[in-house]
């Protein structure tokens, strides 16, 4: 009997899970793709992010596109993995308020 009361109390919070996961994914993507702020506040190459390093591979005289594309793929992997694993939560979280009554 006590377990049923607990599950009834927690039931409204279960609807928040997709929205919170979606918020977490978007927050991660925003932080992962930050480019300008680290470029402005860092003064040494060892403190800069991977995205800035890939941008520095482009040189005015020559560009090694093979190395740059390999770096882009490595940087994209966590984002693609996160979207693949969280696709169910992304759809249900984005459509949570769109239910017609």
TrEMBL record:
It is a multi-pass membrane protein. The chain crosses the membrane at residues 12-32, 65-85. GO terms for cellular component: plasma membrane. Gene3D superfamilies: MetI-like. Coiled coil: none annotated. The keyword Electron transport does not apply. It is found in: Cell membrane. Keywords: Cell membrane, Membrane, Transmembrane, Transmembrane helix, Transport. The keyword Chloroplast does not apply. InterPro entries: MetI-like_sf. This is ABC transmembrane type-1 domain-containing protein. It comes from Candidatus Enterocloster excrementipullorum.
């Amino acid at each position: 009997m006590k377990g049923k009361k607990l599950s009834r109390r927690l039931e409204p919070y279960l609807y928040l899970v997709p929205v919170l996961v979606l918020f977490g994914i978007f927050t991660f993507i925003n932080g992962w793709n930050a480019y300008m702020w680290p470029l402005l506040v860092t003064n040494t190459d060892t403190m800069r992010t991977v995205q800035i390093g890939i941008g520095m591979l482009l040189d005015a005289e020559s560009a090694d596109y093979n190395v740059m594309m390999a770096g882009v793929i490595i940087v994209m992997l966590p984002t693609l993995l996160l979207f693949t694993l969280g696709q169910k939560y992304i759809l249900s979280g984005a459509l949570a308020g769109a239910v017609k009554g």
